[in-house]
Amino acid sequence: MIHSKLIVAASDSTSGSATTSSNASLPQAMAGLADRNANLFRRLGLPLGDPAAWIRLPDGQNIGIVRDLEMDRTRAAGRLDKVHCPADFPPATGTASGDRETASAQSVARFLQLQSIDHVVVDRAFPLIYAWYLGEAGIAISYDDELGVLDRRVKTDQEIDSLRKAQAVTEVVMRQMCETIATADVGSEGRLMLDGQPLTSERVRTMAAEAFMKLEYSMSHGAIAATLPHSADCHHRGSGDLYTGHPIIVDLFPRDEATRYNGDCTRTVVHGTPSENVQAMHAAVVASKEAAESVLFPGRTGEEVQLAVEAVLVNRGYPISRGELTDAPSIQHGTGHGIGLEVHEPILLDHGGGEMLAGEVFTVEPGLYGRQDGGVRVEDMLVVTSDGPVNLNQLQMGLDWNPN
């Protein structure tokens, strides 16, 4: 028989989450797989691949419940006041499940019962299985859409250093890929050749993945190496042969496996001489990027950044075409996004983007795309400070990547 005793507390109707002030004294909980859940990873300090949970008690203690084999490593990470395993809190009746995730959820519910806790605040990634067993134990949950998000938006100095390192490594591989494209041989019909074989989007991505692997970075989210006709779509990964004279968008966003922080950089390279249209597109994109960065201050909004970009590009004759591919170059996407333990983090630099905070890190990546000329995008990573944005990139932004 299917039944549920899941108890969900009322939420604030204006924000969609439980009111922050009413949650201040309530215990908090996160759970799941820390190697996939950035919020949980940040609390535990380890990318655990087995089910785990974090609980903050009303007195401020941080409690971890992890697999018994991971207890010593979790203690050594130094993020928690106490570390337990599911066997420490078996169900009050019956025996613990032989399934690890179920046993973990049962133990979280039992731990909270033993603490006389009947209401807990959870984050946006809280798994249903844990919510189910809390409900079975009569423990209500409230959802807070800022829990685990707001504190990750504002980066510590150490986190900024990790992002700076990740971006520097990304730039090393970006330079390699762009210079490889720029110096390739030219075969029949203008097809680019490398070591006697066609240079394709797929080969560029494979070379980038191999280069990152040697540096202990991963491309788990893939990469983009796209030219006509695919680059008319701003997020197409690219496929097939690359050609001289056409703009090629290279977008790399690897993860540092040591710190779990991400790089994210885009450059556009043209083998040979770009057309006048492509040069004009590139100049407009760079100008719009500068306009975006002039707004990147605490207290300004992500929407203001987007409007600054659109003002430059529209003034130069490029229309807005969100959600629709066009023949002539057009604006297809927002200006950027937060970045950290995940490639895409709140908030967006786009329409509806909220107030920016000192210490946030964003990508700024305006672009233009069309079927006739292809696409042009340039992307850097910047830190918001009261003195103005700090650019974590050093790499040149031009179309010409031939070092000779």
From TrEMBL:
PROSITE patterns: PROLINE_PEPTIDASE
GO molecular function: aminopeptidase activity
InterPro entries reported for this sequence: Creatinase/aminopeptidase-like, Pept_M24, Peptidase_M24B, Peptidase_M24B_aminopep-P_CS
Domain Peptidase M24: 162-385
Keywords on record: Aminopeptidase, Hydrolase, Metal-binding, Metalloprotease, Protease
Pfam family, one: Peptidase_M24
Family: Belongs to the peptidase M24B family.
Identification of the protein by name: Aminopeptidase P family protein
Organism annotation: Rhodopirellula halodulae
Highest classification ranks of the organism: Bacteria, Pseudomonadati, Planctomycetota, Planctomycetia, Pirellulales
